[in-house]
Amino acid sequence: KTRVYKFGNKTADGNSTMKNLLGGKGANLAEMSAIGIPVPPGFTITTEVCTEYNLLGKASVLKKIKEEVEKAIANIEDIMGTVFGDKENPLLISVRSGARVSMPGMMDTVLNLGLNDEVVIGLAKKTNNKRFAWDSYRRFIQMYGGVVLGMKPKSKDDIDPFEEIMEHLKEKRGIQLDTEFSVQDLQDLVYDFKDAVKKRTGRHFPTDPWDQLWGAIFAVFNSWNGNRAVYYRNMHGYPADWGTAVNVQAMVYGNMGENSATGVCFTRDAGTGENVFNGEYLVNAQGEDVVAGVRTPQQITKLGSQRWAKLARVEEEERLEKYPSLEEIMPKLFSELNDYQEKLEKHYRDMQDMEFTIQDGKLWILQTRNGKRTGAAMVKIAIDLFKKGLISEEEALVRMEPNKLDELLHPVFDQDALKTAHIIAQGLPASPGAATGQIVFFADEAYKFKNAILTRIETSPEDLEGMNIAKGILTARGGMTSHAAVVARGMGKCCVSGAGALKINYKARTLTVDGKEFHEGDWISLNGSTGNIIDGKVATVEPELSGEFAELMELTNKYATMNVRANADTPNDAKVARNFGAKGIGLTRTEHMFFEVDRIQAMREMIMADTVKGRKQALAQLLPMQRSDFEGIFEAMDGLPVTVRLLDPPLHEFVPHQLTTQKDLAEDMHISLQAVKNKVAELQEFNPMLGHRGCRLGNTYPEITEMQARAIIEAALNLKAKGIKSKPEIMVPLVGTVEEFMLQEEIIRTTAKKVFRERNDKVEYSIGTMIEIPRAALMANEIAKHADFFSFGTNDLTQMTFGYSRDDAGKFLPVYLEKGILKVDPFEVLDQEGVGQLIQMGTERGRSTKPKLKVGICGEHGGEPNSVEFCYNIGMDYVSCSPFRVPIARLASAQAVI
Ligand code: PEP
Ligand code: MG
Questions:
Q1: Ligand 1 atom having least distance to the Cα of 772
Q2: Relative to the CA of 794, which ligand 1 atom is closest?
Q3: What is the bridge-based pairing of β-strands 472-475 and 452-456?
Q4: Looking at the CA of 798, which ligand is closest?
Q5: Prediction pTM value
Q6: Shared-domain flag, residues 153 and 271
Q7: I need a surface site. Which of 59, 296, 441, 847 has the fewest CB within 10 A?
Q8: pLDDT, tens digit, 9 for 90 and up, residues 617-641
Q9: Segments forming the whole domain that contains residue 635
Q10: How many structural domains are present in the chain?
Q11: How large is the ipTM?
């Protein structure tokens, strides 16, 4: 079995199809090398070795890979013409992790490996650059100490021993920047760093390059089970046994002087999807300098540089002098890079995120991967590539992450509100969208506010969890490729980065800008599309859905066979849903219509009534209100089917529970306070979710069903009179026995007949039921004999199948998720294994007696992509979800077919 795969010099043992084995990075390096991209030579230790290591331990794994690794190092030495550990002509290497999917900042990297007190002298001689050699050496000890020897600070109160030593020396020398250190300073730092290692770990810093290499390799394997990696894995649902590969590669240096540089670039704009090559670089720097946000990077293209200068309010003269683009200062290398970016995008047929280094005038491509992007960019890029003929329609559809559409559907700032908004500063538009929220300064405190704006000098991988919780991210330092920017785009979260005008004081928890001091909890707003930072709250509006988004939606229609409907309770929701392309309403929860202030009174009177006559009187008041709601919804849907569900919730939800409101009701109804209190007590239930609700209401108080059926039929007739078509589907909730359904059906049919006679006119309607009680799924063949359609209410079905109260599960679900008892919240993602069986069985049994039975789903799961696929697979006719999830469900529905 091969455990080590070599690459370099335009050949490779592996290729891009081997991501699971070589990790994303390793597979890409192999592929790039094979297609003629100049990657520094190296090798990849497979992810299987990581799993072997976790099972068998270090000694046994070391035996298995030792010889292969030694041969692979010899191969690099051959290609580079240098020797690992040699005092005169040393080969230095990097060691990086690489899981099968990109996990930004999660795993550890060691650079400059192979240096020691003797090699550093050789390196200095060879490059004729003492400063560079010693700087590399001190960086190596710092990284190796942190990553391999465990000297990284554990919390924000903990100090980084290396940083502390550097700060000390800067103070002593009266300097501010790392670049101001003299060679002697760097030599002192190396000495002090090694001393710190000895003090902290009790061991000398390893001087043998081979010891260094093995230490780094196993540290990478260990980092797979580190806290950050585990959190990221859990967040994305990646299993632990994927493991990570280790990539070992020859070092090339961007910090060898003014003829060297390093940078990051994207073949298209990761924020908007625009087809423009863009990126950032720094002259005389190492890779991490670009993303660390310590120096503000310059733009790669002239166009990008000019755009940046405009935002940063830098005059053209100053731009050319201080921040010229790579295109302007190294035109030949730029054009070479430009060729490679075109070649790579064509080869991978997707937007690429590349890292490159120029070492003393020679360009090396360090890595390329499919770039992270916002939802908007995802749509635009896929549609553009499809139009260009690079990918097929099907591929364009399959590539989209349905949940990412969410970002496009969410509000942006109201243009009018923006006119009066006070802009306090501007940063880079790192990740588009609008966010309004309250300032927090530490990631682990983001939970403090419902809408938190995480405000940092810069972010690091430790901040991931807080970034995920926050509504928006603001940083004072760092470019478009800084950690904050890249991660925020991946999360689809609004982010403004590199707002240099911000003065952040962590200790005092203040943000000073534009002559004003902000404190924790103060409101600010971020515009991730312009980079504007605004004082206070700003109103937002719904986004416009045109262009590529509309084209994508068109495309979904071409492939999707299962319809998407919406859950909508008001004419307005129905309109929103139609605009998003809903093919009907799958659930109108009529109880939501009673909660409005002017209606709840009539509802309460109905409930308080002791006699059928009293109830009917109150219901007569409710009838016109319901009828006009239905007219509005039917009209908005203009002939598309609308499923109206009869009253579902327990009655106690409608009666007043506070003394003052009870008094008001007593007064209004001219009854005693005691009578009100008695009724409230009477309605009190131990377990209302399993109590007097659903069709149990309609069966005990048939007059409620009568009124609702009348309102629905009359509304349809009224519209018909106006020439507007409607297709009401009347749905009976919470059915468990066929008799429950039959009784309700009879009431509805009798009422409809009566109304038809009164009006001397007719409309078509159907009567179906929700399947949301396990017994109903079991009895589906009997129920289907009477019902025209089924709609799976997976909220209740999940509740009753698991036996988890919908209203109380919040108390234990987080612990269950943390302990791995459940992988996901079953109220969010359909439990296909368990609850899914009931759905499949219910559908099959139902269709066994009524082959043409229409079947849909209207629980929250109807808008969750995986659940949508499940519904398609078992043959549902439609899914129904909240209006804003309709596009997501449409995409998921199309993907399910492909
Ligand atoms: C359901 O139970 O899935 C459902 C759609 O109904 P509700 O959420 O109103 O109980
Ligand atoms: Mg329900």
A1: 2
A2: 3
A3: parallel
A4: 1
A5: 0.78
A6: no
A7: 59
A8: 999 999 999 999 999 999 999 999 9
A9: 560-650+685-897
A10: 4
A11: 0.99
